[in-house]
Amino acid sequence: MNDGVNHFRRVALLWLIATVILTPIVVLVLAPGMPPGNGSVEASGQVTDNTVLLGLSTPVALAVIVFTGYCLAVFREREPAGPIVDGPALRGHATIQTWWLVVTTAMVLFLAAYGSVRLLADGSGSGQGPNPIAAPAAASTDPPLKVQVIAQQWMFTFRFPGYGNVETNHLELPANTLVQFNVTSLDVIHSFWAYQLGVKADANPGIDNIAYVTTKGPLTFNIHCAELCGVWHGYMFDTGHVVSKAAWNTWIQQQQQQFAPATKSLDPYSRAYFPEPTRRGG
Amino acid sequence: MTTTTAALPRTPQPLWRRLIGFNLLAGIVLGVVGWFIGWVIGTHIHASSLEYFSEEAGENDIAVLLGYLFGVIGFLIGLGFANYPIRRLLGHPPTLAEHESEGEGVGRYFRLCTDHKVVSIQYLVGIGVFFLVGGINAMLIRSELLQPTVHVWGPNQYLTLVGMHGSMMMGMMTSGILGPFANWVVPPMIGARRMAFPRIEAFTFWLLMAAGVILVTTIFFGGFQTGWTGYQPLGAEGTAGYDAYIAFFALVGISMTLLGLNLLVTIITMRAPGMTWSRLPIFCWAVLATSALMFLAPPMLVCTLTMAALDRTAQTAFFIASNGGSSYLFENLFWVFGHPEVYILALPGFGIVLELLPVFTRKPLWGYRLGVAGMLGVGLLSFFVWQHHLFMSGIDADLRPFYMLSTELISLPTGFTFLCAMGTLWRGRIRLTVPMLFCLGWMFNFLWGGISGVFLSDVPSDTTTHGSFFSMAHFHYTIMGGLVFTFFAAIYYWGPKMTGFKLSERLGKIHFWTLFIAFNSTFGPLFALGFMGMPRRVVTYPTNLQGLNDWVSASAFVIGLSMLVFIYNVISTQLFKREPTEPNPWHSKSQEFQLATPTPVYDFERIPIFDPDPYPYGVEQAPVSPRVAPAGGTA
Question: How many domains does chain B have?
């Protein structure tokens, strides 16, 4: 089909126009809605990451869609019922293939490097296991508030080793504070997901899985189990709050008083708990 | 080996006589007998071991597992898989012709047959039935999610449905393209007269069917609550329904390993003269890469599930932390299998798209070597990415940047496939037939699957999306949008060759457009639901998500509707109209379409000699049909 039209330049131009128009729209319109919102420093960081990924994906997706759409519109057989006519025997194009390889490799390496740098900066709220390598900078100067998250079928409880090892049913956190979650499980694998805080860490039996988060202002956040843990997995959720430091101090004192009898009879604080051997009955 | 003995003249026998013998009926009877033998043995073992091991005698896992084991052995004996080894032991000569030539009728589909074309049809129908069961499970899941609270199913039934849907699709559909289509077209494409191991070929099919039935029996034992991943120690807590999951997936693993081995050996050793590596059709390359994964990855699964079974029966503690095991061990072992597994699902689709595009653009495949490199690259890399399933698990944090890199590297070879597809479309004479539409549907769907994969591979972003509906939407875009769309492309494309009857193009177009629109309308919103914080596999969800969930459920039912159109199409054209089609309805220049329809048992009379390139489109007077070896050549 040698019709004297430079199809390649047309496709490139269409793609360029689409990219220039759509990428800013996608980034500016969708970025504010990117999860998990600005509930914590780590959550804001994830919003930034999602926005960067979205901005980079848009031209790639447009390239495939514009190119394929152009081919279907321009090169479609006009007379499908007519005799079968072959197209030109094009078998490849070394320059295009080389450039494709170079560009995609550069993008992939950039994405991996960017993600690694972002991850290693503050851990991004993800569970890092017992020996975290990426704590927020503040952790070295200011000891974080430690909260042990104990998952079991089918609820989370929260233990505060800095406050007489009191164990509470619900989670409240002080505002503008670096928090260290030590996540563990008493039975099967769970996952502690505090959505608005941008925290997710699996709870493995006998493992101390550490995740950091730096809270901002007052916030209500949803806690959900994110790993299938048995029949009532769907019901393993709770609501937590970030409150002002003064209000939090009042709350933790109340909890200490309320649970004092229970705290006394609990096992001493431990990084991980090995309960009785598995019971049957999921 | 010359096996051109003419079929012996037979006197027609009465129906009751034809039902007796080594066939499906005998297999079912012996399977049930075997189940009870295993059950009785297991009950005795269990009773005597109680005082040593088990704290509670409520569940008898040993009896259930032995029942499945003996049941499968009985089933296979009933089908006649023991006949050949026993005959050889008794000194009879080796033979392969014992089953192909007899019973030209429908009967051969219900017994052990070593003709690769019969096995392919068996695969297609068998897998189709289980695909339907898995699809109905999905409809039932979406019915429950119409409302934020429990209203149709209890939590246990719901999770069992989720687990059955996942296992059915991941287990049975793994062979969804290699079983029906690679088994049919690879021998003609490479110029072989049969597969390398015809008996093993039949064995993989019947084993898979036994596995599928076993999975369904889980509902008699309380179901299983673990989903298709079967994580421990949750599985160790489960009722005997989890034993069905173990037996099912272990048998699927064995079937997959052998299917991969068979195809691998066939492609490596049985190529006809002239079929050099650089002339191998791209679909065969995809099958080669896939079957290498299939041969290497599933043994890991079989071992893992054996360990899980031992934890449940012999009171070992591989995965039970309180007794010295590790829950990480199961996650790692499972995903060392599980990640190659998802590429086993995706890769044949790449091959089908690149194989079909040249036919419907009337152009040679663009960038053949790049396409081959893409498939081999995906296959190789797929073994080095499994820990991205454990990004949040707290496993060694230092390794995460490496797995982030290796995961994102997979988009390079995947991109090669896209480049080849786009290059093949360029300046082609594109005919929008039904198979072509499904290939284009693959391009659209897999694009979103790939892009969402970038979000999941990036740990900071993955913190939100991991284990959410976002990841669920991602793998449905790659597997349903990838595998299932190409599965249908293959049915519409090779169907006329395999059965001799073409599916209706008009109904096919209705099928495609309803499926394509409903698919995107179902799984697109799931990305949003995941972003909004909805975890996977939950039976309840916040009320503010009900609108989107209802939309998704309604769209899912439309997917079901589109499948009804397809089923009607199959039944009306294949069973009722039965209008014979020409041998090459697509004017394809691929080798399998140069054969006669119906294709003779041993495909070629003599081994052909290949000299054309596999895609001679747009080349003046290019030879298409392979030359046939002169008499006296290797046959």
Answer: 2
Q: Are B464 and B416 in a shared domain?
A: yes
Stronger pLDDT, B90 or B104, i.e. the higher one: B90
Largest CA distance in chain A: 89
Which residues of chain B does A131 touch, with a Cβ-Cβ cutoff of 8 Å? Answer: 397
Query: Is the pLDDT score of B242 beyond 80?
Result: yes
Interface probe for A, chosen from B393, B539, B543, B586 (most Cβ of A below 10 Å), is B393
Q: Which among A227, A88, A251 is positioned nearest to A168, based on CA atoms?
A: A251
Q: Name the residue among B322, B444, B587 with its Cβ closest to that of A278.
A: B322
Cβ contact A71–B398 (<8 Å): no
- pTM, whole model, 2 decimals? 0.93
Residue B17 included in any domain: no
Chain B: closest CA distance from residue A49 (Å): 6
Partners of A278 on chain B (C-beta within 8 Å) are: 233, 236-237, 320, 322
Q: Would you state the structure tokens that stand for residue A282, as one six-digit string?
A: 């999921």
**Chain A interface mutation, best of B429, B527, B593, highest count of A Cβ atoms under 10 Å:** B429
Give the separation between CA A175 and CA A189, rounded to whole angstroms: 30
B237:A89 CB<8 A: no
How many CB contacts within 8 angstroms connect chain A with chain B? Answer: 315
Contact B537, B471 (CB under 8 A): no
> Does position B234 have pLDDT exceeding 60, yes or no?
yes
pLDDT in tens, B545-577: 999 999 999 999 999 999 999 999 999 999 998
Task: Give me the pLDDT at residue B125, please.
Answer: 95
Mean pLDDT of B65-85: 93
Tell me, yes or no, whether B60 and B127 share the same domain: no
Contact at CB, A227 and B467, closer than 8 angstroms: yes
What residues in chain A have per-residue pLDDT under 70? 1-2, 275-282
Residues B245 and B386 in one domain: yes
The CATH number that applies at residue B592 is 1.20.210.10
In terms of domains, do B281 and B343 share one?
A: yes
CA-nearest of B610, B380, B154, B554 to A235 is: B154
Question: What residues contact B14, with CB distance under 8 A and at least 6 apart?
Answer: none
Predicted local confidence at residue B236, as pLDDT: 87
The pLDDT of B504-511, averaged and rounded, is 96
Nearest to B392 among A46, A126, A281 (CB): A126
What ipTM did this prediction achieve? 0.93
Q: Percent of chain B having pLDDT more than 90?
A: 70
d(CA B324, nearest CA chain A) in Å: 10
Clarify whether residues B297 and B417 are in a common domain. yes
Cβ neighbours of A97 in B, within 8 Å: 367, 370, 419
Cα B132 from chain centroid (whole Å): 13
Residue B614's CB: how many other CB atoms inside 10 A? 22
pLDDT tier, B2 (very low <50, low <70, confident <90, very high otherwise): very low
> How would DSSP label each residue in B364-429?
PPTTHHHHHHHHHHHHHHGGG-GGGGGTTTTS-GGGHHHHHHHHHHTHHHHHHHHHHHHHHHTT--
Calculate mean pLDDT across residues B59-75: 91
Specify the DSSP element, H or E, that contains B144. Answer: helix B116-144
Domains assigned to chain A:
7-75 (no CATH), 138-265 (2.60.40.420)
Residue B485 has pLDDT above 60, yes or no: yes
Reported confidence tier of residue B98, pLDDT bands at 50, 70, 90: low
Q: In this complex, do B225 and A202 lie within 8 Å of one another by their Cβ atoms? A: no
Instruction: With respect to residue B100, please indicate whether it lies within any of the assigned structural domains.
Output: no
pLDDT for B315 equals: 83
Task: Determine, yes or no, domain membership for B634.
Answer: no
